[in-house]
Amino acid sequence: MNINNINTDYLDKVVAGVAEDIWYHFGISSKSPETEKMRSVRAVVMSGSGPRAAYFAGEWSKKSGAEIIRLDKEERFTFCYCGGIIFSSHGMGMPSASIALHELMKMVYFLKRGNLDEIDKVTWIRVGTSGGFGNIEEGGVVVSTEALEMDLHPYRLWHGNKQVWFIGQYPVGVAERIAELGNSIGVHTITGKTLCSHDFYLETMRLDGAIIFDTEASRSDLIAYYYNHGIRNNEMESGVVAGMLNHWGFSKFATICCIIIDRSKGDQVVSTPAELAGYVNNSEQVLFAYLAEIIVG
Ligand code: R2B
Q: Which of 1, 52, 147, 202 is surrounded by the most beta carbons within 10 Å?
């Protein structure tokens, strides 16, 4: 872990009980009694949608026999704790996901009483949906090796008039192991770079938004350009996930996304609800295979 990049001045006061940290968007604080039941957290699983986070917790409860602690406040994020795992939603897009990440990282620091070795043992996994860039069919799964924005540079933010840069790399050993497990259970799983966009329509070169920048030809050219740079899928949160977790120096984290549309074929998600459920189920199976290995095995 990189102690210089962690706001220890503030977080250590919270650990000591001198300050109360209110994790406002989750409706819980460092003084809430629920925290005592979450001290043995070993993984944080994040998904875009709240119902999906709750569903994951339900599945983990069936497998582990552990009870689910579910927080009442759900208008921003859904949060469940079950059997050593926090299951949380992060909403859509990097501004939303960054809020969830700040509060979840602070929570983990508090739960592990600021012990960096214990904090680093926590594995972070985002599981989501994405568009594929050519060599992977709908229902296949991509595990990110690096997250890049549309200019092929990693996540960055403005601080005043300066840009603050983050690192987009994912731990390769984790990504490769997840892909190996995915393939071993019959889900076509590849590793590759992920394009992380700020917009579902324009930045992703769609021609079906309210505003367009592209033509069919420019879209095809751009998809080929990204593919040639190692991009295998596109979603909207992997950049901030890698950026913030790398900043603290976590060693184990991943983004696992199923493909719900082949972007070289079009823009509209035309799969039926049953087909979509099947695609999403593939990423869930890969997730649970990995959780079984790191938590149970
Ligand atoms: C994948 O799906 C969402 C957009 O439909 C977004 O959160 C993402 O990354």
A: 147
